[in-house]
Amino acid sequence: MKFFTLSTVILVSGLALKAQQPYQGTVGRTLADSKEWWPAPVKPAAGSPNVIWILLDDVGFGATSTFGGVISTPTFDSLANNGLRYTNFHTAAICAPTRAALMTGRNHHAVHMGGFAHYFSSAGFPGYDGRIPSSSGTIAEILKESGYNTFAVGKYGLTPDEDTSDAGPFDRWPSGKGFEHFFGFLGSETDQYKPALVEDNVNIKPDGRHLSEQITDKAISYIARQKKAAPDKPFFLYYAPGATHAPHQVTPEWSDRYKGKFDGGWDVFREQVFANQKKQGIIPANAKLPERNEDIQAWNTLKPDQQKLYARFMEIYAGYLTYTDHEVSRVINYLRSINQLDNTLIFVVLGDNGGSKEGTQEGTVSKAYTPRRNKGLTRDSARLFNEAHISEIGTPASDANYPLGWAQASNTPFKYWKQDANSEGGTRNPLIVFYPKGIKEKGIRTQYGYVSDLLPTTLEFLKIPFPQEIKGVKQDSLHGTSLVYSFENASAPSRHTEQYYYIFGSRAIYKDGWKAGAAHHPDMVELNDYSGSAKQVPAKNFDKDVWELYNLNEDFNERVNLAEKYPEKLAELKQLFEANAKKYNIYPFIDWEDVFRARLINSKKAFSAAAK
């Protein structure tokens, strides 16, 4: 009798089998004295649920009606009302780092995504080169090897720019990271009517319909085909629309629902949302609303034409968010129609960061007519251009993004916004967990969570062990903490007790309810646009950044800075951040203004070649 180790993937009855067991047949000289053997198919446990991860883009904590907002999101409301609302969940403060941590269950610098995978915002260091290593396998790779079919639609955002042509290489496309089918875009943003569209491993032409409609159609078609071929086989769907990242584009059918609804302005909006959040129990009853940021004008001091313009920006955004909720409802309703909804575990992360500050104080109708791209424009001339083109906001002709005041309003009850890793306004995003078949104790959960927690949560709930190897590659340890312990116990103490944050120099460290943070360019209300003319902002000395200290157990929205009162605690947390910086590849600190400027001045030809 001879034994062999099989290293190939064998297809039997349509199931992918990874044979790593010792060969258990008998190989004789002839067939008559031999015994055939095949490894058993890899199958999930009987009754294993389907899994859907939904990740929205640039949605502030207080935008949706699900978490106190005044923008209608009935689908998310329903999922949350029949599941769990996590109010203390966090992201990395910007898209690619959040998505890398989500996909891998590890901290974003540890998987080389300290910035982006784009040419202008990656750097040749282990924490910043934008190339997730094979030793940090994704949720799709793990579930695929565990017998799930795996699909992704929408925004991926983790493929290096130079790899995005039809020539690949494809190992850092979704297909190379465990997804059997992908339909969407590889970059960080795209036009919703003219998207840079990819299907599987091919760049394709868009058909002119809104991207959210197209990705929903694809998601439903993937599920339909799979369930027809293998009704009892579970699937994993990653549904990540471009919404509500700029450009804000949606038909009047949706935006017109909000005509006049924001005429009261962002100050009234914040007060309404804050009151709703208290009523829903989303925030403490004794909470206080932070002051309006000093870079934002009081609404009642704006001229009538400004108010009209800025309200229109928010009408478009609100319609865009409600439309996105509608597209998600199509997936939910399809699952219900085929009797699969009760057997589907759904996670919804309402934003990969806080509301976006990238629309500047005036908002954006066309990127070409903003002070970011056109040095000849002042704030006033940019606003006048926007007022003259107000009818274009939200249409395929615009690159619409709302002004800064709405970013803070959508982040109610927090300060600051996207990119600000030092602030809860940049990093706190709501989480919904839905699975009525297996989650009986519905309601609000306040345990601390971070985006890297979803992978271990999913594996624990499915009773799938974390693999030591994927495709023969030894796997690095996970950094996330499963949230399953909190599903049935609303009062369970948090198990994820320590977490660093770092984006573009802004940084923070959380430990057992205490948080220390430092802004790097606190005077900059938006990141300079690295694909246009970089604003000349001098680099800052990181050692001169001012650290603040908050006790989130008593002051969840960072109103009272305790740095002077508790200098020992601040010093302790700063030391802990330094330990994290060394452990997870946060060093070297980089002032990205210098990187953007160098790329623009010295490497335009290289960028053009990579983009083709």
TrEMBL record:
Keywords: Calcium, Hydrolase, Metal-binding
Keyword Metal-binding on entry: yes
Chain ranges of the Sulfatase N-terminal domain: 49-462
Domain of life: Bacteria
MF term (GO), any: metal ion binding
Matching InterPro entries: Alkaline_phosphatase_core_sf, Sulfatase, Sulfatase_CS, Sulfatase_N
Coiled coil: none
PANTHER family hit by this protein: ARYLSULFATASE FAMILY MEMBER, BLL2667 PROTEIN
Protein family according to the UniProt entry: Belongs to the sulfatase family.
Protein name: Sulfatase
